Amino acid sequence: MNAEDYAEQASEIFVLSDSFIRIKELIDDESSTIDDIADVILLDPALSGTILKLANSSFFNYPGKIDTISKAVLVLGITEVYNLVIAYFSTQAFKSNQVESQFLEEFWECSVDTALMIKYIGSKLHTVNAERLFILGLLHGVGELVIKQLAPEKFKEALVISSDELPWQKQREVFGFTYADVSAELLKEWQLPFSIVEPIRYQNEEKFECSTQETKLLFIAKRMMLLNYGCSHFEQEMLISPEKLVETHVNSALIKAANEFCDMERLGILAMLKPSAAMIY
């Protein structure tokens, strides 16, 4: 099986709801109004509550009170609200994942950390289209969940890496592709925008010549997260060369600040997107 085969299988198990499809149709339709989009979101009380909680959190730091979905769309913008909708329904889709609860909680913690780091760095660097950075970080690793469920034995094999081997190098050796490829193919199956799918597909690409700014920042944020988790035994230079930091204008002070931002925001975001994840604290 190749990455596309795994993604096709996964798309039959991890299904986005009809509400998501309807919201996407409205957002794609230029004749739709803010009220049209808000009305569909309001049909799902859990989604509405999550969006309002996130909109009023320190994550957005909006000075006033956002008490209606229409105001959330107006204040945050359609793209930002759409990203929140994607975040909500994506995490809901994986509730049917038949993996160990501890693994799932740790997975979402790593995903949220990557999302917070890329959003923080992107905002500090005044990145264009920064509103989609959070969703890139949150969904960058969903292919790992797919492989964990559909090919558990090969997944275990890919965990055994040598001291000088990076995880995605071993994944390519075992599968012939990386989890990033599966992530991108699943998001493509879900018909998410190209601007989200492609940075996730190329998150491990060492050559920056053809990379977008979003792809470069995901490259950095993911590796920063790994330094705190699965690859904490590596020296930073093995995961992120000084040249890559210079090229992306990321310095040690920004890395430190991004980690501190994660520590402040992690629990709140986990509690809103994955209520059970907050219990590990």
UniProtKB/TrEMBL annotation:
<dbReference type="Pfam" id="PF08668">
    <property type="entry name" value="HDOD"/>
</dbReference>
<dbReference type="InterPro" id="IPR052340">
    <property type="entry name" value="RNase_Y/CdgJ"/>
</dbReference>
<protein>
    <submittedName>
        <fullName>HD family phosphohydrolase</fullName>
    </submittedName>
</protein>
<feature type="domain" description="HDOD">
    <location>
        <begin position="13"/>
        <end position="206"/>
    </location>
</feature>
<dbReference type="InterPro" id="IPR013976">
    <property type="entry name" value="HDOD"/>
</dbReference>
